[in-house]
Automatic annotation (TrEMBL):
Pfam families linked: FGGY_C, FGGY_N
The protein's Enzyme Commission number: 2.7.1.30
Record gene name: glpK
Carbohydrate kinase FGGY C-terminal domain segment(s): 271-459
UniProt keyword Kinase present: yes
PANTHER family: GLYCEROL KINASE, SUGAR KINASE
Domain Carbohydrate kinase FGGY N-terminal: 5-261
Annotated TM spans: none
Residues reported in the UniProt entry to bind sn-glycerol 3-phosphate: 13, 83-84, 135, 254
Residue sites binding glycerol per the record: 83-84, 135, 254-255
Protein name per UniProt: Glycerol kinase
Amino acid sequence: MSDTYVGAIDQGTTGTRFMVFDHGGQVVANAYTKHEQIYPEPGWVEHDAGEIWQNTKEVVLEGLNEAGLDAEQLEALGITNQRETTVVWDAETGEPIHNAIVWQDRRTTDRVEELQEADKVEWIREKTGLEADAYFSATKAEWLLENADPVGTDRGGDALEDRARNGELLMGTIDTWLIYNLTGNHITDVSNASRTMLYNVRDLEWDDELLEEFEIPRAMLPEVRPSSDENTYGYTDAGGFLGAEIPVAGALGDQQAALFGQTCFDAGDAKNTYGTGSFYLMNTGNEAVASDHGLLTTIGFQLSGEPVQYALEGSIFITGAAIEWLEDLELISDAAETAGLARSVDSTDGVYFVPAFTGLGAPHWDGRARGTIVGMTRGTRKEHLVRATLEAIAYQTRDVAEAMEADSGVETTSLRVDGGAVKNNFLCQLQADILQTEIVRPEVDETTALGSAYAAGLAVGYWEDLDSLRQNWHVDEDFQAERNRQEVDEKYDRWKDAVERSLNWAEDEGE
């Protein structure tokens, strides 16, 4: 197998990456490009699904070309994706009827509050493991059918709903959109289905009552398959952009892919991914553990012919995006500057930053929370604000970690971390101090792409079993807590005060 590999398409919130891995799980090709972030109104976030597909083709070809590889050397393709982001497209033309509505988008907050007022929150949670929130796909798809302007036609919203019932429109998250364009098949995996707020995670099927609630016709929905599928999702077209028939055999939502790539295959294993947001997942095995502390019960992954593995998840909406905001304000010119600036001061000098730009996720679930900076004085400098931003990332993770321990009964003694931000040693040490636990960074930190490659490779026999994947995982560096717990706890209590001041700030969805 020295000259064959597995490819992974990692379609994220800010861009699309293509990576190729060898049998040892090492990177042999890597290409990346960004796509446009579209903000039609405050709180609205969209992507051009056509641009995402075009970029996907370009990065795949670029990655293969730069590594000197032929497409025929790929044993399989895996897909991982920004979750919840929703696309509706014409089944005949393959054209989207509207921009994709991104997971961060808050336009359906009013609809979620209707569900809350109708006492349907617990009903939804019991079926899906999710909070009733604009984060998930159900209200996004509902909005699209009610409000999208059909491309190339003067028919209105009612026509869209009729066409959806007739199977003329298809819906999917980004994995489904890419699988459809790669293979022609309308398929998703269980991990992505579990993020739609339309899928019953216990019965493992689309839920008729939820489809009725959100007026989503079943004919629109993709077939749900295992995350690693020996039957494959289909093959690329030999006459298409790759010029070869490659099986597409694995798919995982990005956070589940990172869980898989970190080899968190056993109950109690946990990881945190630091990207645009941060996502803390703990494998709970074959049991769907209900949360009493604001976490989500979600599907981690499923291998062919095996039961699903569940996970508890804490979703933090804004972490890396807060660093991007510092760049937008020109307080920094590059994310790498943050470590040096933060180290240049002993503390934040009492400044706390709650980056609730799109509301707060776990464990607070407040869609009307907004970004808040407290504790500033005339002596506050940009160094204090930069340090407060890094501390906010670590504090939000502790919010989730405490909820995770309370729900699972498992004390976190070690946390595997990945994502772009973990290259920052200052942040990793800060996280160890604030959590008072070991932080472990692997050699290959692009574990999201690696996880989807593992899923696809397992399906076609490129890797034999989970044990062979465990052998590929190696530690780059670990970080032990160095600060005094009492000092950390006092500052964390002050953080919780700052969070309280951010809650329920926006009075309408336009704020």
